[in-house]
Amino acid sequence: MIPRALSHRLPAHIINGIAVALGVGMIQVLMTALGGRSAALGALTGAICASLADVPLTPGRTWRRVLLAGSVATAVTFLVHVSRPYPAVTGPLIGLVAFASMMALAWGPRAGPVSFVGILAFIFTMAAPPPESLAESVSETAWTVFGAALYFGWSLAASAVLQPRYRTLALAAALGATAGLLRSRARLYEEAPRSGDGSTELQDWIENEARLDERLQLARDLLLEKQGDGRARHQTGLLLLTIDLRDTLLASELDTELLGHDSPGERVRRVLATTLLSYALAIDDIEASVRGGGKLRERKAEPGLLGTLAGDSVFEEKDPRARLLVALLDRARRLHDDLLQMQALMRGGPVYMPLQQADLKLFISAEGWPLSALKRHATLRSPVLRHALRMGIALFSAYFIGEALPWASHPVWLILSVAVVLRGNLEQTISRRNARVAGTILGCLLVLGLSRFGAGWATATTFLLAVGVAHSFATQRYLVTSIAATVMALLQAHLAFPDEGFAVFERLADTFLGALLAWGFGYVLPSWEKRALPGVITRVRKALAQLATEVLRWPDPAGSELQLRLARREVYEALGAIAATAQRTGVEPSRVRLPLVTLAALLRHSHALLGHLASLRGTLTRRQDDLNRAETELALQLAVAEMTQSLDTERKREVPAAEAAPEDAPGLPKEVATNALLPWVQRRLKLAEQAADRVAETADTLTAVASAGAQR
């Protein structure tokens, strides 16, 4: 389908876009030959709408989503054909279609592509010449069904053929994000002590964490469904090792503030940062080998300069940092060990598989469309319902405004502009507004340039290219999608009415007006972040408490890691929701905006707690023979009880967070960890308890701010 040499250089979303464009192009050629231009336009509506749901997924998920998208497109197409002679009916129809489409978001991110199908089908159908009778309406709808059915078959074939490449690229993307996280961590080593609102390096760290979360979940969805052959098991094993390395990396930030910023402390920081950068390069090599299928480069993942720190007297013997250095070096070597495992697997070593197939499937994103998901959104407090109402009212209004405009030859363009700009929150709406306006201007310039050629083949080829580009970048970079969508809309109108030329200036006017309308409707039934914050905070606290319970127990070599891994993933997802909240609230009106400083503090304290737990898990797993089990288990039980109490959402604090003095961090033990490990474990447990308490205090402060804002 796509030449091997080319596919190895392209990311998954580009390959997917090429496959979509090829499918739509073949359907257009076939339908033009079978039924002429009118049949081709109807079939294109079905094919393009069905293609919205065709993204890099497993075949089992692809056929369900593409079938649903094609069915929705068919239903909307028929309703539009029937109501089109009656504007008083067509206007409310687009409002209802928009409302129903946005309510689909109750099923979460998987419904995102499908949620736009109904609106796009309305726009494409309205852009075509109107049918003159009911029989012609049925005929046009039949062509839409045929186009959707043809694309359904194409999507199944394309998904099956491209599946191995999708899996490989998903794993490579996760490895690349892991290398990026190592680099951002290296920058944090050399950073000055952090201020309360977080530094640029900290923000970069958080962004890399979010990017890695997204790519790891995509890799899970593609890799964990089936483990039939050796290649699939190999890729899954490498993915699990990547996840474990990330967990080990969490502990690398701990205690670095104790190094100070004198000459010896700066030397240690530089060495640790350089070591992490060398590990990032080693993971780059693994990514390149996975992506291209070649042999792993023979780069030794040696601790490097760590050996010089261990052999030299960096700190004076009485300096407590000499004992700390031993712990820091041990932590860096854990990363080295994880990396060695990954390299060994790439060179044909044994597959790392701590979970059974049934357990692995629990980490795959949910699929299906249960009606019960709608019930919890049957309230005006639901952001999904509020956005559905907002979109319905906006498109209803846009339809009649478009009909009243002096340039009413393409009234659906105004609807399209409002539909693609208006998002569920103000931050995304403003971002889409800017990208839509810029993309429309650039797209119109491209079409003006194309119009100089005048050749029909150039128009048809460019249209298909625009379909593929718009699809490829829809979730990657909306500016590119906006340019391609503008080209596609102008060319689609030209294909439907060749004698009318290219309505460039009308397109520009509709885009500017639509962007303004969408921006204005962004303040109708708004879903400010403060409304959802208490629920997100509760999720974070419960997830951290559950993870602490799973980590702080004596390890059982024969036991399953399932619950611990599930708890860890839930923490990452919950913290990702906090990071997204911080990003979105930044553009909200000041009267409802959440304090970014406090949100950053919650993320910082939560990551600190994650780091302490990761360090403890590594110690308990790798050095349990150096610990007295009875004493250690007692310390673990007491720490779990303390952290669970701190993170309990029902706990009533006697002292407000603003008045509570932070507890001093425990000092370093008198002996190095190689001689007496338990005191270091007890210190780490105490630090984890303090981090949990700070998480709870910050969470209480944010909850109080959100509640006070909701009452205004």
How would you summarize what this structure contains?
The chain is mainly α. The protein has helices spanning 4-7, 12-51, 59-83, 87-103, 112-115, 117-127, 134-189, 200-223, 230-250, 263-292, 306-311, 321-346, 357-360, 372-375, 383-404, 412-421, 426-450, 456-472, 478-496, 504-521, 529-551, 562-585, 596-622, 629-647, 678-711. Helix 4 runs antiparallel to helix 15 (383-404) and helix 7 crosses helix 8 (200-223).
Percent of residues in helices comes to over 70%
**CATH-defined architecture of the largest domain:** Up-down Bundle
CATH class membership of the largest domain: Mainly Alpha
The largest sheet is: none
Number of domains: 4
Give the overall shape, derived from the CA principal axes: elongated
Task: Summarize the structure in words.
This protein has 25 helices and no strands. The chain has 712 residues and is mostly helical. It folds into 4 domains: 12-166, no CATH class; 167-363, Methane Monooxygenase Hydroxylase, Chain G, domain 1; 381-527; 530-711. Helix 2 crosses helix 6 (117-127), helix 10 (263-292) runs parallel beside helix 12 and helix 21 runs antiparallel to helix 25 (678-711). The longest helix is centred in the first third of the chain and has 56 residues, at 134-189. The chain is elongated.
List its salient traits.
712 residues; Methane Monooxygenase Hydroxylase, Chain G, domain 1; mainly alpha; single chain
Topology (SSEs and partners):
Layout: H1 4-7, H2 12-51, H3 59-83, H4 87-103, H5 112-115, H6 117-127, H7 134-189, H8 200-223, H9 230-250, H10 263-292, H11 306-311, H12 321-346, H13 357-360, H14 372-375, H15 383-404, H16 412-421, H17 426-450, H18 456-472, H19 478-496, H20 504-521, H21 529-551, H22 562-585, H23 596-622, H24 629-647, H25 678-711
Helix pairs in contact: 2-3, 2-6, 2-7, 2-18, 3-4, 3-6, 3-7, 4-6, 4-15, 6-16, 7-8, 7-9, 7-10, 8-9, 8-22, 9-12, 9-23, 10-12, 15-16, 15-20, 16-20, 17-19, 17-20, 18-19, 21-22, 21-23, 21-24, 21-25, 22-23, 23-25, 24-25
